[in-house]
C-alpha cells in the first residue's frame, strides 16, 4: 500500500512527490533523459505572454530544469523553464480556479464517483464536430489497428490540416510497439495527425471475469503513482508531451482514483460513444475505439460511419471540449 501512502502525501498538499527513475521500465532507445521527476501544483504567470499556467510536474530534461504546465485557458500543455514563470503572483491561483481548465478539472472530479465512465464524456459546450479517441491498451506486438490511423490521417487533406485525435496510451503498449509508436510520431511530423496523448496507465491490468471492483486499476496491489507517472516519463523521453487527460482502463474507477487524478491535475476522460458497443456519436461526442487491434469490429464500424460522422463536423482537439480555440 506504499503507493497509496505516497499518493496521500500529494492529497495532503505536499508540493513534491519524489519518484525514482523509471529507466528500467521503458524501451532502450531513449531520445531524452528525464530525471528528478516530481508532481507539483503551482499557478504561475508566463512572463513572455502574460498567460496563466498551472505547473503540474517538475523535472530535469537532458539536465535542464523544466516544468510541464497546462495553459489554463487553452487547456494544452507545454514545457517551460522556471525562469520563464512568475509563480509568486497571487492573482494566478484565482485565475486558474476560474479558468476553463480549473473548472473542467474540478467539475470532472466530484461526487458521485460512478464505477463506470466517470469524467468527461462529451463536450461541455455546444460544438460542431467530434472528439475521436483511440485506446492503446497493452496488446501483442503483432497486433495494431494500422488501418484506423491511416484512414484518419487520410482525412487531413479534406480537413485542411492535421486531424486531431486523442490517443490513450499505456506503458504496456509502448514497451511492445516501439516501431508503431514511431509511426504515429511520423504521422504527426508529416502534418497528418495532431495527437493529444492521453494517459491510459502503465500496466492497464485486466483479468476477464473479475468484477469491476477488483479489476483494471482497482486491482489490489497496484502502485498508483507508477501507473500515472511511468507513461508521462516514457512520453517525455520520446519527445512527446503528456496532456492533462487520463482515461481509466475499462473506464472503471473509484473515488480514490478520481481524487488522485485531481492531485495530479488530470481530467478523467470517459466516452459517450464507445463504437464497438453500438453507442452512436452525436455532435460533441467523445468517440472511443481501440487502436491496439483488440476490438476490430469497433474500427470497422467507425470507418463505415465516417461519412455520417464527418457531416457532424470535423474531428476536434480534446482541448476544445470546454470551449473553442483561444
Ligand atoms: Zn484500455
Give the helix/strand layout.
Layout: H1 2-11, E1 34-46, E2 52-61, E3 64-71, E4 77-80, E5 85-86, H2 90-97, H3 100-107, E6 131-136, H4 146-154, H5 156-159, E7 163-169, H6 171-176, H7 178-189, E8 193-199, H8 224-237, E9 242-246, H9 255-263, E10 267-268, E11 273-274, E12 286-290, H10 296-311
Parallel strand pairs: 6-7, 6-12, 7-8, 8-9, 9-10, 11-12
Antiparallel strand pairs: 1-2, 1-5, 2-3, 3-4
Helix pairs in contact: 1-9
Zinc ion is lined by residues 135, 137, 200, 204, 249.
The total of beta strands comes to 12
Number of helices: 10
H/E topology pattern? HEEEEEHHEHHEHHEHEHEEEH
What general outline do the C-alpha atoms trace? Answer: globular
Q: Tell me the strand order in the biggest sheet.
A: 10-9-8-7-6-12-11
Cα-to-Cα separation, first versus last residue: 42 Å
Tell me the β content: 15-25%
Explained architecture:
The chain folds into 2 domains: 2-104, no CATH class; 114-322, Glycoside hydrolase/deacetylase (TIM Barrel). It contains 10 helices and 12 strands. It is globular, with a radius of gyration of 19 Å. Residues 8-29 have low confidence and may be disordered. It has helices at residues 2-11, 90-97, 100-107, 146-154, 156-159, 171-176, 178-189, 224-237, 255-263, 296-311, and strands spanning 34-46, 52-61, 64-71, 77-80, 85-86, 131-136, 163-169, 193-199, 242-246, 267-268, 273-274, 286-290. Helix 8 (224-237) links the parallel strand 8 and strand 9. By secondary structure, it is of the alpha/beta class. The strands form 2 sheets. The protein has a 7-stranded parallel β-sheet with strand order 10-9-8-7-6-12-11. It has a 5-stranded antiparallel β-sheet with strand order 4-3-2-1-5. The protein binds zinc ion. The site of zinc ion has 5 residues, from loops.
